[in-house]
Amino acid sequence: MNLNCNPALGMMLSRNTQRVRVISEAWFGAEGYCLKCSLPRLEPTRAGTEFRDFVCPRCAQGYELKSAARAHTTVVQDGGYDSMMRRIRAAEAPALMLMHYQQDWSVQRLIAIHPVFLTPSVVRKRPKPHLRPKTLKPYWMCDLDLTRIPPDGKIVIVGDGAERQRAETRRAFRESMRFGDVPLRKRGWAALVLAYVRKIDKAEFSLKDLYAYEAAMHAAYPKNSHVRPKIRQQMQVLRDLGYVQFLDRGHYQILS
Fold it and tell me: Model-level pTM?
């Protein structure tokens, strides 16, 4: 994979957002590949296609590219709120590709957010609406909260300026597919608990370790006043998915 973009492609464009989009999409179109199947190339979608910049012509997996001069860590600005929610509910969310480029336009980092981890709880509706041209009808944009996505849903394609082996990235993408077995209405809580399981960073841990994050989980779901029972419930889900193994009363071991 060539990790150098071609900045000359944006020389004639006056707006920085246009330059970034043209340069980064040209790079991804030349170097990107499908994570879901073995196809080594992707095709760009037609202009104006919502939440899909590229698609695999074999398996139809969609990809949305977000590029920035700073690494995406907490929040990503995205498109229309209603459109994204429809995509998620219809199981048509794209793989979100987060690209971080250096000042010299070399790709420092490329992360794929697996579509099964894009749940309604990740999507934040912006407080102020925009007005549609001509009709002047209000519509809302959205942001995506990356803090609610565990590391399992963030697949490193390029890290610290080095490409990861394609066999590894595709294997990680396949392994994340199991999370899709969780019903969508329950997936947000399961993903949140898994994110805090990963923060514990121990091979064996207890519910007490997870309870230390009770306040943060309540902040994510302020309408739920029974956080500890919810944590215990989600640990059963994660056990059934093969992420953890039950050892003893309130004690678990990380499996994968």
Answer: 0.94
